[in-house]
Design brief:
The protein is built from 4 helices and 23 strands. It is mainly beta. The protein folds into 3 domains: 73 residues, SH3 Domains (SH3 type barrels, Roll); 53 residues; 136 residues, endopeptidase domain like (from Nostoc punctiforme) (endopeptidase fold (from Nostoc punctiforme)). The strands form 6 sheets. The protein has a 6-stranded antiparallel barrel with strand order 18-19-20-21-22-23. The radius of gyration is 19 Å and the shape is globular.
Length: 273
Amino acid sequence: MKAISLHSIIPVRVEPKESAEQSTQILFGETCTIVEQIPRWNRVKLDLDGQEGWVDSKMISPMAKEEYASYVADYSKAAYVLYPIAYAVSANNGQTIPLTAGTRLPQYQNGQFQILGVSFRIDPSMVIEKPLQMNEQNFIQTVRFFLNVPYLWGGKNALGMDCSGFTQTILGLFGKHILRNASEQATQGRKIASLTKAKAGDLVFFSHYEREEQEDKITHVGILLDAQRVVHCSGRVKVEKIDNTGIFSIEQASNDCPNGQYTHRLLQIRRYM
């Protein structure tokens, strides 16, 4: 059975209980397949990236086959929320729904969109009607919207996101829909040999610098601004220095390392655009 989110954000959990770890989130308008049902909980598989987990059954809305087919057929007519937070107003009851960047708006036209027969209004200045064109100006401007968004494990919205939720959201605004986790994202795109051959928008993958036993395991991802700077979500979305060794953080300065220290070891670079 297919279902859709009509809530701003739905947490997806690794176990069917409220206290369980959040693995990802479902945004407004995203669809999924219900693969298992138990009292109060549904195990779902997200159509966007194949992630699976448990959601509170009352937070998703089942879709008939005809509804789902019609909804998917209109994907090409969808627009996207560009800014971190925008507000949609239901034409049915006047309720306001906060929407986060990357949220898909089906059947969008002139500040209005529809979902399952319900019309919504939204400020057109908060919306892009087609994916952004990848150039340095667009990329840097878009990244700036997300600076200082706090880190949240499993998050992919402008009030909290993890490293791969950040990269998935940013590339999605440029029309590139990638997998959810850093290790999965590293299987996509085209490998770039070195920072000297890299460009803005390339993803860079890392291990944690202090964990020598996991030095070859991808545990972190960011996006290059240029060959010397990376934007990534670690504590918060921020810009830091990068070189062939990895990310060098001046925030990690200490008595032993007064100028800062390496926090992540560079493993590979990949291009998706």
